[in-house]
Write a structure and sequence with these properties.
Distance between the termini: 46 Å
Strand content: 5-15%
Radius of gyration: 16 Å
Order of helices and strands: EEE
Number of strands: 3
Shape: elongated
Number of helices: 0
Structural class: mainly beta
Length: 69
């Protein structure tokens, strides 16, 4: 299978378990992952296939109102 992340084809994997796509996400001029935009992951099989996937997404937030929460 071919995997594309934000239009960039990632190199062939020896195993398709636990693929980390962070290095392939589109980045801005300062090298940070683009915010406020959609990111795409395309999986293009080369034969009849069954694709099973799971997404792990991690986010961070800051409190701006003051106080202890």
């Amino acid at each position: 299978a071919t995997i594309k992340v934000d239009g960039t084809t990632i190199p062939a994997q020896s195993s398709y378990d636990d693929i980390d796509i962070v290095n392939y996400l589109s980045k801005d001029d300062s090298g940070k992952i683009r915010r406020n935009t959609w990111h795409t992951v395309e999986i293009l099989p080369d034969t009849m296939s069954r694709i099973v996937g799971a997404v792990f997404c991690q986010t961070f937030c800051n409190s701006r109102g003051g106080g202890d929460y």
